[in-house]
Amino acid sequence: MKADFVFVDEFASGIRWDAKYATWDNFTGRPVDGYLANRIVGTRALCAALTEAREKAEPRGFGLLLWDGYRPQRAVDRFLQWSKQPEDGRTKPRHYPNISRADMFAKGYVSTKSGHSRGSTVDLTLYHLATGELAAMGGGHDLMDSISHHDADGITPTEASNRQALRSIMTACGFTPYASEWWHYTLEDEPFPNTYFDFPIA
Known about the structure:
Elements: E1 5-7, H1 8-11, E2 16-17, E3 41-43, H2 44-57, E4 62-68, H3 73-83, H4 92-95, H5 103-106, E5 121-128, H6 157-172, E6 175-178, E7 181-187
Parallel strand pairs: 2-4
Antiparallel strand pairs: 1-3, 4-5, 5-7, 6-7
């Protein structure tokens, strides 16, 4: 890995993860280029901020579960290639029920240059410490739909409260939310604000 990048589980203990793009459980329907191991990578600054977020979540009865951190540029390139392939319908109902593949880019759910590739952006959710179950958020990871926007209409009071809990925890620890995706946060003081890396996660 590049200097200053680490495996998050080694530098931010007590945080769960499920690296979706290393598995078949993502909007492309298969493991994505550059994800050779089911682990989350990020900068040391990201890990320090996530440790603080975990400490703030615990008194509320929540833990953190990460879906993605650093994303190699080759994975982003693969997303663009996939978006141009014929629709097969395998992941559409779950991930983009109301838009086309191409619309993902036009509507800002996927980008040709992702903040994830700079190493200090994370996709995450909350889970209940008492049960281990994920908190209800009104939609899962990479549901590319208006229901995933912060303060979206059509979610329950509990889901809205859980989203707000995540947002307040993350913003208190120096993260900026992304308006279209309740799970997406970027470290305000990221160490590589203009560099997009492409080393694989292995």
